[in-house]
Every structure is written in C-alpha cells, then in structure tokens.
Design goal:
100 residues; mainly alpha; 69% helix
Length: 100
C-alpha cells in the first residue's frame, strides 16, 4: 500500500486536524484540552494526529471546544465503495486468523 493512507486513516487524520484547528482557534493548549477530557498531553496529541477515539471522547472534545460534534466530523475525505469493501474484507480475513 506504500505511503497512501487507507480511507479509515485518512478519515481519522482529517478529524484530528479539525480538532487541532478548533483548539488553536480557541487559544487552548494540548494540556488544557487533555486535562478537561481526562487525557494526558501525549494522548491528546495522538488524537490530533489521527488516533481512533470513542464517540464519548469526541463529545467531550466538542463540549470543551464549544462546537457541535458534527463540526469535528465535517471533513472532505472521499471513500469509494471499493475501498470500504476492501477494508471489510481485510478485517474479516484478520478475524479468521485469530486463534479461538
């Protein structure tokens, strides 16, 4: 796959960029955001870099930044059906490889 990010990684990176943009626009530090949502600075940084987060964490971030959660999800990442099917197929294949 090379340097091309998978659709899920592109999505998470774009959400993280939105979080960073809103945080900086409000003048907050990574420490301040992390403290209010219950994470340390390094985990907050990872979120902005595209770490997968729960919906609850997304809601906490949105509340802290005083923006609707959908604003954090408003991204321009296009994912084709072929890409979605490929992701699902890989996940199914990996699930079958796990020992029971």
């Amino acid at each position: 796959m090379g340097d091309i990010a998978t659709p899920d990684k592109r999505f998470l990176k774009a959400v993280g960029e939105n979080i960073r943009r809103y945080r900086k626009a409000k003048g907050y530090t990574l420490d301040a955001l992390g403290e209010d949502i219950g994470l340390d600075k390094s985990n907050t940084y990872r979120i902005e870099q595209g770490k997968n987060i729960t919906l609850l964490t997304l809601m906490k971030i949105a509340i802290f930044l005083d923006v609707p959660p959908q604003n954090l999800l408003d991204i321009a990442v296009h994912v084709s059906m072929e890409e979605v099917e490929e992701i699902i197929a890989v996940k199914r294949k990996n699930r079958k490889k796990r020992p029971q």
